[in-house]
Structures are given as C-alpha cells and as structure tokens.
Amino acid sequence: MDQRVVILGAGESGTGAAVLAKKQGHDIFVSDSGKIKPYYKEILFNYEIDWEEEKHTERLILNADEIIKSPGISEKSEIIQLIRKKDLRIISEIEFAGRYTDSKKICVTGSNGKTTTTSLLHHMMKKAGLNVGIAGNIGKSFAMSVAEDYYDYYVLEISSFQLDGMYEFKPDIAILLNITPDHLDRYDYNLQKYIDSKFKLTQNLSEDEYFIYCSDDEITIRELEKIVVKAKQLGFTMKEKRQRGAYMKNHNINFEVEEESFEISVADLSLKGKHNVYNSMAAGLAGSVLHLRKDDIRNSLMDFTGVEHRMERVVKVHGIEFINDSKATNVNSTWYALECITNPIIWIAGGVDKGNDYSELMELVGKKVKAIICIGTDNSKIHKAFSKTVKNIIDSKSMLEAVQTAYFLGKDGDTVLLSPACASFDLFENYEDRGWQFKKYVKEL
C-alpha cells in the first residue's frame, strides 16, 4: 500500500531515501530546515519530488504515515519533539532501504575504525570477484544505491545515529569494532545510551548470522554478558589466546572460522599501528565467513592502501612530515594516531567538543607532543587539559593559520599531525572539508 513518507533532511541520506521512496510508488515530501545543496536539488527536481528548504511546515509533515530522519538531526529539535508527541514512526534511511533489497549485508559499526574496516572489506570482496557495493556512512547512501544499482553484497558503514532509527533491519554479518565514549552530547552524556545504540546492530540476529566483535574491548564484553545474541560469535584479540575468531601468536594473526584456519604476519599488513591490526582482524574474519579464498584475504590485507583523512601521509616539507587524520573525531581515535607516531609531534586539535575526556591522552601527549595548535572556536577545554603537560599551546583562527604555525614550530624529523578529537562543524562543513583544507595549505608551503 502506498504510504505518505516524509523525509527530514535533504543531504546524501535524505535525498537517497526520497529517490528510493519515489521508485517504490510512495507519496513523498522532503523538508530541510537549512538550504539544500544545488546537487541534491537537481536530483529532487529530476525525480519530481516535492520539497521545501529553510523551514519545516508542520501540516505537511505531521500527516505522514512514516518519517525518515537524516542522521544529523537531533532528537531535541523542535520538529522531532512534535512528531514524537504525535506518536508518528521515525526510522533511519538504512532501515527503509533494507526493506527493498535481498542482497547480503555486512554491516560495520564502532566508535573508531569503521571507514577503514568497511573500505578494506570492500576491497577484499572485489578482489575475490564478488559483485559488491559500499554504502551507508561512506560514499553513496544505502537507499540511493538500492534505488539505482544492483549488488549481490553490500558492505555498510553504520553510525550510532543511523542505528537509532533501526527496528527490523538485519545484517548477515554484524561487525562491532569497539565502543569508547563518543557523541555523548547526543546521548544526554549517558554512556549506556550510546552503548545501547551500538548494540542495536545485533538486535535481530538469528542463529544463521554472524557477530564479529573485539574481545579486548571491555565495554563490549561487559554488555555481551548482559544480553543474549543468538548469532554465531567470532571474537578478535591481540592476546595470544586461542579462540574462535582471530588471535595473535608469535607476531602472526591466526584466523580460525569453522573448520578453516590460516595466518598472516603482522609485519605483512599494509596498514600499520595497533588499531589497524584490529581492523585487519575484523575484515579478515568477515572474509573467512564469506568463504573467500585465503590468498585473496591475505593479499588484500597486504596491499590495501588506506582511506583518505585517516592517518593519510600528505607530504614532507624540509624534513617535517604532515599527516592528515581529520577523520579522528573522538579522543580514542586520536589516541591511536598519537600511539603509532614515533617522531616528536606538533598536534593540531580541536573543534566541537562532544563531551570529551582528554585524560586518556595525557600520558601519550606528555611523551610525544611538543606543541598543540588549536583550531576550534572554543579551545578552553584543551588548554585546561594540557597546559601543565605542553608548554606551547597556540590558538589559530583558520586552517591556513594552523598549518603555517605548525610549519614555523617544526624541525627536521618532526611530525605535524591533524587529529582533532572533535567534530568539525564550528569552522568547517565536515571532516572532509577540514582534511582537504589541511592538505591544500600544506602543499602550498
């Protein structure tokens, strides 16, 4: 039966949902409280979809059978509060798109490593010759891909905001990389609400599906002890502890899934650093569950080149290395970045604080960081956290100023690391814009 579907937000997610809803014959209306980008307007025009911008007209929204909310819209917004009072159903674009595809879905979530693991697994499956798409919180929206493409498999990166609106959606393989405090501003500064959101990925799993998780992650293990996950469980650990899944032995990663087993040396992984060992384990386990050839899994782990804005080496200028880790939008992600650099660091940090606790960075910053350059509109929390640990903490008003200051402070053998530990929306459109600006100004030095 045709439904009236209202879509809030006309970015990648909302526009994709609108196109899919139109193709399914629903009555659609798209509403955005801000300006809609010309690219998305053109798509809405081409598909003859009704829309409005810079407002939410209540009478056109509150008559919906179902509402698809873009992930960036807060539950606290006035229109969402009105919709909740009316008891109308709000779902995510991922939930909606999942209804219209029979493709197998490998879904990746976690506080850190989602994009790298999703991209690595997609690379692996393509190398194995599978007809596989990549979507979700990366690249094209899942709904737009379901509307326009046909894939036998999808690798989906899924954020907690997308999981919040999921009810019936079910992955074939669910991957939970880790849980560390992130986006707490969206979860009433309540860590358990954020944990509950991440575990929604497992809510509909049956005995036929797989759940891949980090057995070194204390929060994940504690939660698993409290709930029942019916799926087949595969853990991955850096410890030399044999288990179903992946574990370390003599600097090798050992994979054991069902009757199959193989190993790869950590030294052979293309992605370096402790966090990337975990990401490689998760992707390798998913590849094993999919019965990919061991050589395809091994070769993919050895030749994957990484993703933009994640520990991306930009260039060396007079012996100073510049690294773009703009995708590090939380403290834990920045911890991994600092952990895997051995040279003295000039750290560019700051942005929209999401309830950050910087104490876990204190030891690494004390050992490795010679200067901090702040790029947020309010840098007081960074100053307060590190003023006793780092002598040089300098505020900058733009990325250009931050890059030039870092270069002025740097010496041959230093590393300038953009790893903000914060969201980007105070000075930049998004983390990509922040990373692109960094690379542009570094290359102009």
| Count of discrete domains | 3
CATH A-level architecture of the largest domain: 3-Layer(aba) Sandwich
Main sheet: strand order: 7-8-6-9-10-11-12-13-14
Please report the total strand number as a whole number: 20
Helix content: 25-40%
As a percent range, the share of strand residues is 15-25%
**How would you classify the helix and strand content by structural class?**
alpha/beta
Q: On the 0-100 scale, what is the average pLDDT?
A: 93
Radius of gyration: 22 Å
Please identify the top-level CATH class of the largest domain: Alpha Beta
The rough form would be described as: globular
Low-confidence stretches: none
Largest sheet: 9 strands, mixed
Count of individual helical segments:
17
Task: Note the gap between the termini.
Answer: 60 Å
CATH topology of the largest domain: UDP-N-acetylmuramoyl-L-alanine:D-glutamate ligase
Name the CATH superfamily assignment of the largest domain: Mur-like, catalytic domain
